[in-house]
Amino acid sequence: xxxxxxxxxxxxxxxxxxxxxxxxxxxxxxxxxxxxxxxxxxxxxxxxxxxxxxxxxxxxxxxxxxxxxxxxxxxxxxxxxxxxxxxxxxxxxxxxxxxxxxxxxxxxxxxxxxxxxxxxxxxxxxxxxxxxxxxxxxxxxxxxxxxxxxxxxxxxxxxxxxxxxxxxxxxxxxxxxxxxxxxxxxxxxxxxxxxxxxxxxxxxxxxxxxxxxxxxxxxxxxxxxxxxxxxxxxxxxxxxxxxxxxxxxxxxxxxxxxxxxxxxxxxxxxxxxxxxxxxxxxxxxxxxxxxxxxxxxxxxxxxxxxxxxxxxxxxxxxxxxxxxxxxxxxxxxxxxxxxxxxxxxxxxxxxxxxxxxxxxxxxxxxxxxxxxxxxxxxxxxxxxxxxxxxxxxxxxxxxxxxxxxxxxxxxxxxxxxxxxxxxxxxxxxxxxxxxxxxxxxxxxxxxxxxxxxxxxxxxxxxxxxxxxxxxxxxxxxxxxxxxxxxxxxxxxxx
Length: 494
Known about the structure:
Helix content: over 70%
Number of helices: 18
Number of domains: 1
Shape: globular
Radius of gyration: 22 Å
Structural class: mainly alpha
Order of helices and strands: HHHHHHHHHHHHHHHHHH
CATH topology: Amino acid/polyamine transporter I
CATH architecture: Up-down Bundle
CATH superfamily: Amino acid/polyamine transporter I
Largest sheet: none
């Protein structure tokens, strides 16, 4: 492989595998996601929330295969922008990078909103801010974005270390609570005569199986971020080894975690109509369950942990989004503007632009559409996930071309069935969420905004061919890309 081009603006290699895991886990935010995301699924599939998350877990593991193979060959701060650009061409790379940047931006709004919701609930519960007004969470949203920006422009090692430790402690507490609830369900001592009930893995009568894929969107929302470690390809010591391990490990952990936790949550509330209603309207799923099954004090701790997890995810969205914008700006504008690294070796200018985008989205939702904090959370989550599914499709196609068409990695040919299966799952999920097209309420705008974001990226590359040329040259100059584009022989995965 050729030596790195030291004339190009770069980031510092200072991270290990655990920092990469920390970023992926923090962006996935399992403790926050388990407290609020399943409610979106329950509105469409009722008690079958765990089934929807199980299908999402299968889809994510299939998609993870493509990311692992691409990261074994490439290392680049642009993640899917670089992967797709190197395999399908610079125009497709810019569109996919722009798409993932949109996902991280909308998800930053999602997680900042969740921080505001959980944080306000916690302050109310402990009596610090009793009966807060409906606009109170927006103050905490602003605080989350401001603090996230400060931590992003600092060296990333500190940020990811804090994210991993806080998220790890919160997840451990959630797993403990989950185990207590499960034991009481099995022993028949659960409040309200709740019991262990595997019907949560079946579709309720009157609900079509295809409707489960409407709920799968919130499953993908919960898993989203497992691939975030790919943006640290230029900052880890052994990227070809550490980044794939971080991505695959996070995806496997997320699959087991969300399926088990959502199943216990639904059983804990009850699989009947009353239980589903209570599940759907709970302000904090695990907080309420902890209060019912253990004590109010534990419910308060879980709610605080969910708020911290939400902030950690917001920070991870900004960290990943800023590196994507940095990579795009570096290749398109010769390292000027957002493509310039700070003296601390971080993309500070890009981080400012991304956090301003998050703030504008929240402001438009609240001022122009009268959205409340949960509306901001829900709307941004669906839009960001629809964009992400398209990005996953492009990335998976790029992996197929790299591995099974160009044969750049020595991989058995039969494994092509894995990315093909991923494309089937992704394609059907997108189709089911657009057809039949929603005609009433806010959902009718979700495909429009998601498609509009991607269309902007497409128009940029079509209207500015010189930009695509510069991007292609930038990708070719990156470490390892020139060898790949010139037909380097197949090599075994690292």
